[in-house]
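Hi support team,

I submitted a single chain yesterday and got back a structure, but I'm not sure I'm reading the C-alpha cell output correctly. Could someone confirm the output below corresponds to the sequence I sent? I've pasted both exactly as they appear in my results page.

Thanks,
R.
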Amino acid sequence: MQRDGLNPATELSDLSLRASYKIALKIARANNPFSDGDFIKEFIVEAAELLTPLEVKKFSGISLSRQTIAWRIAGMAADVYRQLIDSACKFIAFSIALDESTDISDTAQLPIYVGARERTTVRFSTNETHSEGYQLAKSS
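Hi R., thanks for writing in. Yes, this is the structure output for that exact sequence:
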C-alpha cells in the first residue's frame, strides 16, 4: 500500500532516517558520547526480536553508528545556527547575557541568553472603521 506517492521501501527509509535524527537529538541533549548510538541500536533490535519478530529488519535499518550520530548532530547544529542568523537579521535591538559556572562534577558550563526585539511593521487599513479607531487613539 502506498501513501503520499511513496513506495513502502522509501517510506521505511524515511521513517528510519527520522528515527535516527530523533535518537541523535536525545544523545546530544543528554550529553552522551556519540558511540552510544551503537549501544542503543543493540537494545532496539533485541526488543524488536522479542516484540515484533517479523519486523526486526525495520529496526535494524536505523543508522546509529558513531559517525552517523556525529553527522546528524552537526546537521542539526548547522540548522539551528542558520535559523539564529535568519532571526538576527530582523533584530532592531538585542542583549546577550553569559553565565559561566560549573556543575556538580566541576565541569564548566556556559549558558548564553539572548533577548531581542524584531522589526514589526504597523500598517493602517484604509477601511473606515480602522481609520476611525486610529483617529480616536490619536486624539486621546
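A quick pointer for reading it: The chain has five helices and four strands. Let us know if anything else looks off.

Best,
Support desk
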